[in-house]
Structures are given as structure tokens and as C-alpha cells.
Amino acid sequence: MKKFVPALAATTLILTGCSVTDQAPDATDDASQTVTVMTHDSFNVPEELVTAFEEDTGYTITTTSPGDAGAVLNQLILQQDNPTVDAVYGIDNYSAPTLLEENMLTTHDVELGGAADYTVGTDTDGHLAPIDRGQVCVNMDNAWFEDADLAPPETLADLTDPAYEGLFVTTDPTVSSPGLAFLVATATAQDDWQGYWQDLLDNGAKVASSWSDAYYSDFTSTSDGEYPLVLSYSSSPSAEEGRTSTITATCTDQVEYAGVLEEAANPEGAKAFIEFLLSTEFQASLPEEMFMYPVDDDVELPGEWEQYAQLADDPISADLTEVSENRDAWLNEWTELYENAN
Is the distance from CB of 293 to CB of 132 less than 8 angstroms? Predict the structure, then answer.
């Protein structure tokens, strides 16, 4: 079966899709025809959309991926004085305020339409365009719990119960965007999040270096792993056809954004790329290609999503201003806590 988040086969991908033709470059200017985009390693575009973009705009898009979304943010900041890309895609809502504070982006000038509902509140200059959305949730292997005759956990607090000792694998919040979302969720929902994490680790929770490692190497439903509880997404069960489900009380919202670098060599091409990401065609491809929900609410979701990929009605909602003010401190505290536990 197709993995539900296809990974890039290489560090570069030539894109062609649909965007505005009035942004097309002069065919005699080779430099203006290339747009370099930094993305996370789950970025995937259907071939037919790739072809359309090149034909409509004349741009060639080269992507580079340093890893998960957390690595994208870190790499951008490292390149701040000498950026090597024109645009970025995959910055999530819990990292977006940090990137905005670095003053590395410029106004994208793209018409957002309904996607404006998902903009970052502090982004008053239009530096980040919402592209897709979802929810980060704990997923469970339904058959494992049935065979073990064990009632599955229902809340974050349940994950620290000795009944679930050694059953949960999460991801490193310093490099993984779902890991960061889970850390933010615990900091939001728990009165003493440090104490909660100490209890979680003491209860045998594993911290994997990436979502792929956790989901495809450690999770019992998709591998020979030993963990029937895994941090993943609300959309993940749609790929497993009922073998897994989400624990809805653990879900928190995630939105991914794209932006144009202030020092972009090809800002017009970067803007055309963002407009392509907001096109109806690309938005409609998101559930199948990246298992994220479109920010265009008029796009029809696949039938199996209605059954297996429902969004939680009452997700854990974090204050992004509080996240922005505390993100670095939380990550530092978590790192110290994790290192001391090991």
C-alpha cells in the first residue's frame, strides 16, 4: 500500500504546475527562470501539475529539503545572512511566529481567498500564505489493543498511566513539527508540562528522531515495531483503512505556510510558486499526495476521509503569542529534561 506521506526521492524536484502567466520570466533570461524553494521532506506534487506549471509560467522550480519542518526553520535561520533559496514551504503555525520575528520574508502579494481564515494573527504584512492544514494526534493500533484486551487511552494524562507503560512513541520537538505540536499541546493542556513529560518518559515513552521513524519503524500497525501508540495525524487512519484510529482528545491544529525570502534572487517566481500552491488543482491533490487538508474549503475530500480522517471537534488550542514568547524556552527545558532522563 502507498505510504500516506510520500517522501522526495532526491533533494531536488523539478516542478511544473499552474500559476499566473503574467509572472512568466523573459525566456532569454536563464537566471530568472529558476526558482529555488526550501521544503520539508514530505513535499510531493503530482506529475501532471508539475508539467502544467512549467508550460504556463516558464519557471523551473528546484526544491531542497534539509529534513522535517523543524529542520527547515533551523536551516533558514542559519542561512539568514546568505540565503540560498527564493521561497520556503512547510513552516507550521507553531514555528511561524519565530520565522516572522527573524525578518527574513517579504510580502507575497498573493490573493488568499478563503485561505485567509488560516493566516497567522501576527502576520500583518502578509509574509506567510497558508497552504494546508491538519491535526497532530496520538494514533493507536486498534487490533493490538483488542488482542491485548486493554482499553485504549483517551487523554494525554492517560499516556502516563502504568497500564500504557512502554506503548507510546512520539517525536523530537526540536526537529520534528508534529513533535513540536505535541510539546505545545502538553504545555497548553497540562498545568505542569515539565512534570507531565517526566512522567511520560518514566512510563517508557520513546522519542524518535522523525515522524517517519516513529510511524514506519516503531508503530505496531505499520511495522514490526513495539509501540501501538504513535504521534501522527488525524488523517493517518485514512491510509490504514480502519486498522488505526486517532485519540481525539490529544489532537491539536497544525497549519503549514509558504513565504518569499526578502533576499530572493527570483521573488516573482517565488510568488508564482505560492500562487500555484493555492491553485484549486494543487489544493485538491493534498489529501492524496501529502495527507493534509486543503485550506480551500471548497475542495472535496476523498470519500475515505469522511470515514477515517475526521478532524477533532474540540482540539487543544494553543495561544500562538504565548507559543512565540516561550517556544525557545520550552524546547530548551524539554531538551534538558530529556537528556537527564537518558
Answer: yes
